Predict the structure.
Amino acid sequence: MTSDYWTDFGHKLAGLHRCSKENFGLDHDNYIGSLPQSNGSSSTWVEFFINQRLRVQLTLAKNGNNIPSQLLQSFDKLIQKIPDWLPEEKPALLHGDLWSGNVMVGSDGKVCLIDPAVYYGHREIELAFTTLFGGFDQSFYHAYNEEFPLAQGYEDRFDIYNLYPLLVHVNLFGSSYLSGIQTILDRFT
């Protein structure tokens, strides 16, 4: 690992996020882990996040009896408030499954990313995901924000964004992730 590994990574991810398209989504569906990931096109981030991320995973959880009805009711309340909380920004090209298990050191000592779930989304959801299972070195976040500054209050929105990967984990691995979801819902509903 090079001495500037995390700083270089932050700058490179900011560069990836500068790649944009007209709409959120992708021209095809793909996978997040072993679950299908819906990437239907949307002109607004809020619509895409609610319909292509939260509602799809909530339907899977409900159909698999992986989520209690009280949590579904809390999600209904949260979804009504989301348009007031999440800022719009032009779509950014995302890795889509960016956590420490998908980050490696290449033979040159620089960052290598594996196992993407690529789509065009809001870059805050990507950075939120990096914090879900321990996070990255602080120099990564500093370098990213130096290269491509985030909107004020971005860290306050991370929990809302992390509902998506937590729901994915409920659908892949079961109920042990429900307590984290409940904590977030209690905070925002």
User: Anything to note?
Assistant: The chain has a mean pLDDT of 95. The first strand starts at residue 30 and ends at 32.
